Amino acid sequence: MPSAQSPASVFADSKNHYEILDGLRGVAAVMVILMHLFEIFCNGNYSKMIINHGYLAVDFFFLLSGFVIGYAYDDRWKKMTVSGFFKRRLIRLHPMIIVGMTIGAICFYFGDSAVLFPNIHATSVGKMILVMLIGYTLIPVPLSLDIRGWAEMHPLDGPAWTLFFEYIGNILYALFLRKVSNVVLSILVILAGAALLHMGLTRPQGDIIGGWSLTAEQLQIGFTRLLYPFLAGLLLSRVIKPGKLNNAFFWCSLLLVVSLSVPRIGTKEAPWQNGLYEALTILLLFPLIVFMGASGEIKNSFVQKLCKFLGNISYPVYIIHYPLVYIFSAWVVNNKIPMEGAWMQGLLVLGSAILIAYAGLKWYDIPVRKWLTGKFVEKK
């Protein structure tokens, strides 16, 4: 994402898990899809993009990931090896990565657009299959294999870049972060937060966006976006004492949706204002939302079922939706479709992504993870 990893199975065996946080992960994933659907209609003027800050959902996913990893695994290391941890994380995340890359390959040529994706028509099937196979490993492809023309490290499934950084966060946790004291972790959080704030204030375009390309600049952006939220989430899992908040899912969802939907702030002459908003949202608001979500109780059976559903589909829908968005975007550009003429097709993409994600979860992801866990995870 997470990246947008799911819910119950990621928590320690005997622990209660935070159902509201599961639901919020799903809310953020849906907001990402909506942002991607609207994105094609801004005609390159991203200041007018609807759900203007939707890409910050990625930073929210990283924060949730740090929180969940700390909560689930911090007290398990006397009974778990580093290799055992890596096996668990690979089993949790990697089966759907393979599905996402496969769907991306199947959909690849259906999104042909000379204007939008200049490299597709010149890409052989063999080269596309090579990119798919590399994608299965989540190793970023070099620019020489940029078969779409957007300089993505995973051209068949763009959002997979966040899983690449998610894996890096998991590696850092297992090899180093799990051992550090809260004092050291607090210092790291402060330093990472300062770097994030600096990026928001100094980038010429005035936003915290990027990380999906295998270039020095984009990798720096990706690591900056990963480190503060992941570290802050891990620290939160160790130090907070959740309170009791009524209707927490509603209030947290409202804060999350509003923060991601706020129109672009500031002017061309003062882009730092927008960067400051985005930095403060990640630095302050997202941790507050996680604290509120962890402090809430669900007393309504409908809300409980909704959170469970949203949590279950959050990671699958995130990792499989973008190949469908590529096709939708190419259709819009090729046929010069205005937004008011594409809302039904947009809803179809959203609904299809959710249905495919749910089917993939039930008929592939859960059974495969269950088999892999039984075969490769040590019994303790």
Secondary-structure-derived class: mainly alpha
Order of helices and strands: HHHHHHHHHHH
Morphology call: globular
Low-confidence stretches: 1-14
Kindly report the average pLDDT value.
93
Quick structural gist:
The protein is mainly alpha-helical and 380 residues long. 64% of the residues lie in helices and 0% in strands.
Could you explain how this protein is built, in words?
- By secondary structure, this protein is mostly helical.
- It has one domain (8-376).
- Helix content is 64%, strand content 0%.
- The protein contains 11 helices and no strands.
- Helix 2 packs parallel to helix 5.
- It is globular and about 55 Å long.
Descriptive key words:
single chain, 380 residues, mainly alpha, 64% helix
SSE diagram, text form:
Blueprint: H1 19-39, H2 57-73, H3 82-107, H4 125-137, H5 160-175, H6 182-202, H7 216-239, H8 248-261, H9 272-294, H10 301-335, H11 343-376
